[in-house]
């Protein structure tokens, strides 16, 4: 799972960051719009309770979305994808989802045109990381995440799995499902990882069981290594 490399990867340090304005064209409708990228970025050895990475380039546009038809540009669409998209974008399912998180819209599109389970899980995880205000309070989003998470834990390599299980536990915690949260925490602890960020993350989630609304338990609260 490519997304898991971002979870357990070594922090990278590069030159000074510079916002770069880039114009992209929506593949359906042809609208041209502007996004912000960067020519370099520093990733810090700190994560948030959502387990989102932290960096010096958080100003970049995460998951660009076409301004007219709301199409989220989460991958390079093939011609076959675009043919399916044109049909899907005129359905009630698409229309009823454009007011939700753009990450959820990307997810249901992928389920319709591609159904790549690894990509589907990655999209939903990114939504918790980069659009927490529109995802953590959304029960439908959580249901989709828990459904995809079952497959994600099975596909994960052994050294990645405890990180995925801990993050799933946190989402269960924020959804008010404490028994399921504890179950995934217990699974995460089976690996016996005693250094790095994971023990601190597990300890914080366990502390949050009693006070889930504490500021230290918010999705944007930082986690530091013990």
Structural class label = mainly alpha
% residues in beta strands: 5-15%
Question: How many helical elements?
Answer: 10
- Major sheet strand order: 4-3-5
Quaternary structure classification = single chain
Low-confidence stretches are: 5-15
Tell me roughly what share of residues is in helical segments: 40-55%
What is the N-to-C succession of helices and strands? HEEEEHHHHHHHHHE
**What is Rg?**
18 Å
Account of the 3D structure:
- The chain has 226 residues and is mostly helical.
- The protein has 10 helices and 5 strands, in the order αββββαααααααααβ.
- It has helices at 2-8, 79-88, 92-95, 102-113, 117-130, 132-135, 139-155, 161-174, 178-189, 198-208; strands spanning 19-25, 32-38, 43-48, 53-55, 222-223.
- β3 and β4 form a beta hairpin.
- α8 (161-174) packs antiparallel against α9, α8 (161-174) packs parallel to α10 and α9 runs antiparallel to α10.
- It is globular.
Topology:
Blueprint: H1 2-8, E1 19-25, E2 32-38, E3 43-48, E4 53-55, H2 79-88, H3 92-95, H4 102-113, H5 117-130, H6 132-135, H7 139-155, H8 161-174, H9 178-189, H10 198-208, E5 222-223
Helix pairs in contact: 4-5, 5-7, 7-8, 8-9, 8-10, 9-10
Structure at a glance:
It is built from ten helices and five strands. By secondary structure, it is mainly alpha-helical.
Descriptive tags:
10 helices, mainly alpha, 226 residues, three-stranded antiparallel β-sheet, 5 strands
């Amino acid at each position: 799972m490519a997304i898991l490399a971002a979870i357990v990867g070594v922090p990278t340090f590069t030159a000074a960051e510079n916002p770069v304005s880039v114009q992209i064209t929506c593949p359906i409708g042809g609208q041209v719009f502007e996004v912000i990228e960067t020519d370099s970025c520093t990733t810090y050895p700190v994560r948030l309770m959502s387990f989102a990475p932290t960096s010096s380039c958080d100003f970049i546009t995460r998951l660009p979305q076409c301004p007219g038809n709301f199409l989220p540009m989460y991958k390079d669409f093939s011609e076959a994808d675009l043919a399916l998209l044109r049909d899907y974008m005129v359905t009630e399912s698409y229309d009823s989802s454009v007011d939700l998180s753009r990450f959820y819209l990307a997810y249901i599109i992928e389920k319709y045109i591609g159904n790549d389970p690894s990509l589907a899980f990655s999209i939903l995880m990114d939504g918790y990381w980069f659009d927490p205000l529109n995802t953590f309070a959304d029960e439908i989003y959580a249901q989709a995440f828990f459904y995809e998470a079952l497959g994600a834990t099975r596909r994960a390599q052994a050294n990645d799995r405890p990180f995925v299980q801990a993050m799933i536990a946190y989402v269960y915690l924020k959804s008010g499902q404490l028994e399921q949260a504890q179950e995934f925490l217990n699974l995460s602890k089976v690996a016996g990882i005693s250094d790095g960020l994971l023990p601190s993350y597990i300890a914080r989630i366990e502390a949050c069981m009693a006070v889930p609304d504490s500021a230290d338990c918010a999705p944007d609260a930082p986690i530091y290594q013990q």
